[in-house]
Amino acid sequence: MTQQHHLRGVLLASCACILWGISGVAASTLFTTNAHITAMWLTQIRMISAGLILIVWGQLAGKRPFKIWRQHRDALTVISYGVLGLIPVQLCYFEAVRVGNAPIATIIQFLGPFIISIYFLLFKHVVPNRSEIIGMVMAFIGTLLIVTHGQLNSLAISPVVLFWGGLSAIGVATNTLIPRAILPKYGALTVTGWGLLIAGLCLMALQPMWLVHLTLTLPQFLLILVIILFGTVVPFLMFARSLGYILPTTASLMDAFEPLAATIFSILFLNVELTNFDFIGGILIILAVMALSLNPHKMLARLHRRKQRS
Known about the structure:
By secondary structure, this protein is an all-alpha fold. About 75% of the residues lie in helices and about 0% in strands. It contains 14 helices and no strands. The chain has helices at about 5-35, 40-60, 70-100, 100-110, 110-125, 130-150, 160-175, 185, 190-205, 220-240, 250-255, 255-270, 275-295, 295-310.
């Protein structure tokens, strides 16, 4: 692997994460400018449109996306991935953006890797190492600063924001863990495409999007296209492509650009005001996740050795 290829992978992963951060800002703009746009409606539009695009893309690229339905267990896994992984990570995130703002929602969602660590501790009995424990403490302190602004007897953000943001962080964990078994077999394009489409159709069954009567201005319509194309399809393809040049652990470090992008663009274009506690807490969480991202291979190696001994 040449230095040029490594740089290309880093740039692709970084740009993908920046685009994901911008999509949160675009969603926040839509919620602010049109009260009839709900998180449920926007999530359905995003998931169904992006899912169809990825499935068609996969078919044209020769990935044979429909073969996943030939295996009963794999079909159930991709359905679980859509319902239990993608719905919380996208719908709950948009709800957190709607009732709060994009930077805080993105930072809280960024706690997902620590939920994965807790999952490995409770269910796989993989004890975190020293750096992971330090990272968890940093993340806890950072979250505490954001939630309380240093006043431990009161909350600085709405409990509703914390609720939806927490669910989206859990969604990051389920979104990561559920499809692990089928990703090597079918590829990220097929699994993500079907997961998005299934999740969108399930949400539509709960609350059909055509029942929402709203009028969109041209800028609002363009923002929806930005969320679908440049906030979902394009960054997914860029991030997947980056894995051909760099290790997943390196790519995951670029996730830090998502909350940074959400914060910078919210301040520049939405006049969102963040306190020093928000900035310090956000930086602590980002540094903690970056530290954790350096060690998932060690966690999986310990898990593999434990299985060999059992």
